[in-house]
Structures are given as structure tokens and as C-alpha cells.
Amino acid sequence: MSTRRSSGNEQDSLGVGPSSEILRAQELDFEGPMAHNGLKFFVPSQRAMQKLNLAHDGIARQLQQQETELMTLRSDRDTMQKRLQNVEEDPSMSMWPSPRPCLPLVAEPPRFGRRAGSRDRSLTLRAGPALLLAVSASSHQPARRWRSVMRSNGIRQLGETIRQRLFGSEGRLKELPNLMKTPQMIYEEKLRPLEKQLQFESFYDTAELSAAYFTSKPMVLVLGQYSTGKSTLISKLLKAEYPGLRIGPEPTTDKFVAIMGGPSRQQLPGFALCSNPSQPFGQLQRFGSRFLERFEGALMPEEEVPVLSCLSFVDTPGVLSGDKQRVGRSYDFEGVMGWFAENADLVIVLFDPNKLDISDEFRRCLEALGKKSESKIRFVLNKAEKLDRFELARVFGALMWSLSKVINSPEMPHVFLSPASNQLDLSPEALAFFQSEGERLRQELFQVPLDNTTRKVNDLLRRGRLLRCHALLVQQLLTLRGPFGRRKVLRETITDPVKLAAECAKVAQSSGIPLQDFPSAATLTAQFLKMGDTPVQEVPSPLLRKAEEALSKDIPALLDRVASEREQMIQEGLPMLDLLLDSRPRESAASE
């Protein structure tokens, strides 16, 4: 069998495409010619076949990379179409004196005076991204006119404005530079594509951040053992009783109840509440229909209950003692409580002086709270007016001793003291003490709407840092090679916590990320094994660059801007929450 070099025409007859790698194969030897049915053809040598296979693999990689970039472009296109649709459907704010574009920032400081081209005088509040508000005033009396104008415009408009502060569902920041991109846009455009690629939700047992997560009102969770006064405390804060409320010495609240503002007083079943995309409870469907039967919503008009304009409350069933009650719940009570605590802005834990023992179920709930939301917890010793000073000292010491077994913290938590009723027959000194404690608890509630945006941006930053650590670790694992291929050495690494911890240390050293940002090696091993045959996925470079840009530029700049605007709003003395929590009748309040 003779050999000779093939020409370009002969190579074309083999059906080879015009790739540069394949064109270089013309210099290789071909075996032949061979004859079959009167036709002559050449067979590439083994070396030529190896080159052709390498060229084919290179073209396949290029096609895969182009397909990934095309998917990214399609995602950007869909996001842009949604943004344009939101801009077209966005009505102008009814609180503006005249039709004009609604800008979330005011460049100049607040001032009083005559606006150019308008007859009436205006007061423009520099609320920044934390509050979009402009109201008309007809006099130079800021404090009194502010309160009267806000009451005349209605509490509901103010509450709706606060709900849409900075990152409202109407997307008023869409045309601003990248510095002021909303967290929802940053998540959808720069973090969500990488999460899909890496199956982030399945790996870490979490859920996608929906639009309702960013636009929902702050949530206050109230929990405790049965008959500790949870429902009574919520009624005191609301200054009204929510629909379906039952109060008694026996366990009365047997459901999770979300108290929110609505058009009228009504009760909504849990199935309807979780199916509503505008509510942040969609993730609760994973706990099953048994839980949804024990979950409901209580709606109250915001005109009657002003505090619901900027807050929502969750009343919980009393935690019982004994294993029979835990088995009889037929749903994951600790898991549900952990979800509410993780998504709540403030967690109030109530204790009764007569029920200081912490049951096993209550202990598991408190341990779950301490792992995810320790900074949100506020302990309240209710019904404290029934104790004298000596009994109060003993009860307080017993409570601290019980909490020390559950809360893993070197600092002693602060415990608020609250009376069971506002009608107190106490000495002036004791009455002043309970009033000061109540005012301190009210101040904690005042901070919730102001800190809601900062908390959500911080949560997004924490989620993004975990996503970056996971992506870099997967990249490191895909570089592993062994004498028998990559699959075997990869399987050996992800099933051995010691080897996996060593790979995490390599990633931390090469990228400059603190090693503490990575989950524990045992947790990672369990999660990798749970993923089955596809524990790791390729990490496209464009998606990783977008996530790095969001973590290094967009979110830190957004945090700085939100903090500065919040501080300025406080310095200007905006009487926002004092007005919302003012429950006096509209006529008497307007007569000030």
C-alpha cells in the first residue's frame, strides 16, 4: 500500500470543513489510494485522525461557548423588554402637583418657596431612594403643615409610598445609571443566570428570590409558648383586633396568621395567599397542603390601622411541650418557623413568668432562630406587672439561665418587660418604668421600615458571596485530573471532606476570599452527594464576570447610597413612623 500527500481537492472529497485546524491536516500523510466499486479514495493515517478529533473538539467547545453567550443575550433581551413594558405601564404619581417625570432623587436640599411656572408654594422633601414623596403646601409652617397635609392626603397614600421606597414594583429607578440599579434588577440580570447554570437552589435547598421578596412590606414575627400573650401584644400594637382573633388562657391560636393591610376586613385561606404572586409567601408551598390548611391571612383596612401601611405581622401557634403535639402537627413546624424567621425583619419572642421552662420543640425553634437570624431576635417578658421587685429579680434570673442553654452567644441578650394590659394600677415609679420599656420596644418597631431596604440588600450581598464561592469551587474541581480521567478523581474529592476542605483553601488563597465564606466541608460533601450524577456544572466566564461586577461594584455602591440617604432623612426629622403609628381619630388629629 503506497502513501502520498493529499491535495486540497482530495481533502475536500473527504467531506472535511474549512476549519483552520483541519486545513493544517493537509500536511499529514494519508494512506491509500484504495479502490472500491471503481472509486479511488484515501484513508487518513492514525496521526491525522487524532488531529481531526482535536479539531472537532475545539469546534464543539466554540459552539458551546457561543450558545452560552446567546442564552445570556436572550436573557438580557427579555429583561430589557420587561423593563420597557414596566416603563410604558407606569402611571405618574398622583401626589405630584402637576404631571412630570417621577424622579426618586432631589438634587437640591429641601426648601420652601415659589416653584417656577406654578402659582402654589411647594415643599419638596429630599427623601432620596428611601421615600418618594412630594406634597403641596400653602404656607411657611413646616411642622404643623406637614402633619395636616399628610392627614388630608390620607394615610394609605403615605403607606403605599413607603412600601415602594427605593425598589418599588413600578421600577422608578430603571433609567438611572448602574450605580443605582435596584436589587431586583441586579439579581435578575447578574446573579440569577449563574444560579440557573449551577443549580444553586437545588444545591443549597433555597428558593429563587421573587419580585414580591423585594417589594413586600417589612414583616414582624411574634412567637412563644401558648398563652404568653402573643395575640394580645399584636392587638396592642395594631390598636385593633384582627379578623379571626381569639384570646383565652387555653391555646387559642392554632394557625399561622399573616396580618396585612387590605381593602376590607377579611380572612384569606393559605392556598390563596401562597398562590398570589404579589405576596412573599409563595415559597411556603413546599411545606405541603397540611401546612397550608393551618395558614391564613387576616386583612384590615389601612385607614383603620395605619401601622399596616408600612408593616405586616405574623401570629404563630403556641409552642407546646411533649412529643405527641410535635407528631400531631403533620407538617414541619421547625422548618416553617425557620422560614418565617429568615424572611422576617424582626422576631419578638414572648415569655410568661409562669412558663419559663423551654420545651424541646421551643428549644429547636430558638436554635433555628439563632443560626439564621440572631440579630433580629428581641425577647419580651410579658405580664411583668403581676410581679413585685423581688419576684421579678428571681424570674429574670431564671429566664437568663434558661436562655443561656439555647442562645450560643457570649453577650447577654436584652429582655424587654411588658405589662399584659394598659390599665395599670401601679405606683408612679413602676408605671414610668413600664412606659419607658414600651417606648424602647416601639423604637425597635420604628427602625424596621427604615432598615428593611438595607436588610434586603445585605441578604442579597450574602447570597451573592455564597454563589461566588460555589462557582469558584466548581471551577477548581473541574481542573482536577487523574491517571484514569477526571470523573474518578472528582468523585473521590467531593466524597472526602478533608480533600474538599483542601480545595476550598486553594480557592480562598488564589481568589483572596476569606475561607470563612465557604460552607463547611461536611455540608458541601452532603450537598454534592445529593446532586447525584451531575454534582458540578461548567461555569461560563461571562456569567461569572457579571456576578463579580455585581458584588464588587453595584451592591456596595447601592449600600453606601441607601445608608447616606437614610441618615439624611433621619437628620431632616421626617416624622414618618410617628404619623403612621398615631391611632387618634382623624378629626382630633387634624385639629392640631
Automatic annotation (TrEMBL):
<keyword id="KW-0175">Coiled coil</keyword>
<dbReference type="InterPro" id="IPR051943">
    <property type="entry name" value="TRAFAC_Dynamin-like_GTPase"/>
</dbReference>
<dbReference type="InterPro" id="IPR040990">
    <property type="entry name" value="DUF5600"/>
</dbReference>
<feature type="domain" description="Dynamin-type G">
    <location>
        <begin position="214"/>
        <end position="454"/>
    </location>
</feature>
<dbReference type="GO" id="GO:0005525">
    <property type="term" value="F:GTP binding"/>
</dbReference>
<dbReference type="Pfam" id="PF00350">
    <property type="entry name" value="Dynamin_N"/>
</dbReference>
<feature type="coiled-coil region">
    <location>
        <begin position="49"/>
        <end position="90"/>
    </location>
</feature>
<dbReference type="GO" id="GO:0010008">
    <property type="term" value="C:endosome membrane"/>
</dbReference>
<dbReference type="InterPro" id="IPR027417">
    <property type="entry name" value="P-loop_NTPase"/>
</dbReference>
<dbReference type="InterPro" id="IPR045063">
    <property type="entry name" value="Dynamin_N"/>
</dbReference>
<protein>
    <submittedName>
        <fullName>EH domain-containing protein 1</fullName>
    </submittedName>
</protein>
<dbReference type="InterPro" id="IPR030381">
    <property type="entry name" value="G_DYNAMIN_dom"/>
</dbReference>
<dbReference type="Pfam" id="PF18150">
    <property type="entry name" value="DUF5600"/>
</dbReference>
